[in-house]
């Protein structure tokens, strides 16, 4: 997928990528809040930036592994085969070292809707937010 720094950021901010998540992905800045981390991780998945996903994953996360080659390949395989359509933030519970962000990710694989709602938990480790885990939430029937 061709993507320019002048394209809109995949996180849904309506800002250009270079003015939004790019500085996080390039490690020029670090997200100041769990919400910024959540959005930058969504963008990283959309842009196949496995290095950023690995960097921002807490060591106690169940996917965390020292087998970086395999982990990297798993992330890239998922990202390359998924269309990241939209990110909607539903709820934020913000605190200084532990925060929660509930979001809906609208995703497609081979025209199949694999969208989900997750309540993600983030911990601040040595001043840097990390994704530790998440809980899927059933979407209420309309």
Automatic annotation (TrEMBL):
<dbReference type="InterPro" id="IPR048469">
    <property type="entry name" value="YchJ-like_M"/>
</dbReference>
<dbReference type="InterPro" id="IPR004027">
    <property type="entry name" value="SEC_C_motif"/>
</dbReference>
<dbReference type="Pfam" id="PF02810">
    <property type="entry name" value="SEC-C"/>
</dbReference>
<protein>
    <submittedName>
        <fullName>YchJ family protein (SEC-C domain)</fullName>
    </submittedName>
</protein>
<feature type="domain" description="YchJ-like middle NTF2-like">
    <location>
        <begin position="33"/>
        <end position="134"/>
    </location>
</feature>
<dbReference type="Pfam" id="PF17775">
    <property type="entry name" value="YchJ_M-like"/>
</dbReference>
<dbReference type="InterPro" id="IPR032710">
    <property type="entry name" value="NTF2-like_dom_sf"/>
</dbReference>
